[in-house]
Amino acid sequence: METFDKRDVNLKTTLLLHGWPQYIEPDHPISILFNELGYNVVAPKLFEHKYTITNIKSIIKRELKNKSPNVIVGVSQGGMLAQIIALTYPNSKLILVATGPYLKPKFNLFFKFLFYSRLTDLIYLFLKIMPRSIIFPFYKLTNFINGSNFKDYESVMNQNIKTIKLIKYHIYRQVFNFVLKTNNVKILNKIINNTLILGGKKDMLMPIELSNIMNQEIKNSTLTIFDEPHYKVITNTNSLDKIKKFV
Question: How many Å apart are CA 87 and CA 193, to the nearest integer?
Fold first, then answer.
């Protein structure tokens, strides 16, 4: 397929909002797809900046050069953010992937306690200093394999752990404050964007119940559910085909 020079100012633009903890790099399947479709891809690395809504909006505006994106894509935590950003750009198509209006993971009570308490500081320290061999068993408890290809799963896990070790503590705290305090249910009916929602039956971090809520409340939305865990919803071929048809 023909590719396009990003310097072409007449290109359509896609805003990609990443989740935790990895950025959406140029070699990510979603970046590659939009490049092949002839879009200029804007994918700000938001964990390199103060993570507040006011600051994020400023960064996005600057990255977009004060123009409206044709498409906004929010992945996981980035999907929670995308619902807020979409209110500023009502004419943009909106794609919400493996996300929800708020976070409601299907963890056991112990991990819910860890996740929703100040003990998240201990999680950060644990991920920062412990070797992979010790982290791996705990990682599996909150990121279930669900029968997926283990090599693929292991690759994502290793990259996630590597990335978390690079994130500064104060950014980590700001990100978790955003995730734990955000509840977008009240704004969903204000979103008028043409919206595609992609969820996973095996997603334990953002269960399909959350996808259903978004689909019910966002007026111009369609929902597709795949038989995938959280980390595979965005990269499986069917998801990419669905996105391609939507845009």
Answer: 8
- Which pTM was predicted? 0.82
Alpha-carbon distance of 174 to 125, in angstroms, equals 15
Give the residue range(s) of CATH 3.40.50.1820 domains in the chain.
Answer: 12-104+182-246
Distances (CA, A) of 192 to 68, 122, 220: 15, 40, 6
Do the strands 93-97 and 221-226 form a parallel or antiparallel pair, or are they unpaired? unpaired
Asked if 235 contacts 210 with a C-beta cutoff of 8 angstroms, the reply is no
Which residues, 6+ apart, have CB-to-CB distance to 110 below 8 Å?
none
CA distances (Å), 146 to each of 25, 153, 160, in order? 26, 10, 18
Neighbours of 202 (CB within 10 A): 18
3-state secondary structure of 73: strand
Token pair of 134 as six digits: 């010790």
Q: What is the pLDDT along the chain (247 residues), one digit of tens a residue?
A: 444 444 455 689 999 999 988 899 999 999 999 999 999 999 999 999 999 999 999 999 999 999 999 999 999 999 999 999 999 999 999 999 999 999 888 765 555 555 555 566 666 666 666 666 666 666 665 555 554 566 666 666 667 666 777 778 888 888 888 988 899 999 999 999 999 999 999 888 899 999 999 999 999 999 999 998 888 898 889 999 999 999 9
Nearest in space to 34 (alpha carbons), one of 12, 62, 66: 12
Q: Which are the contacts of 47, defined by CB distance < 8 A and separation ≥ 6?
A: 21, 23, 167, 171, 175
Look up the CATH number of domain 12-104+182-246. 3.40.50.1820
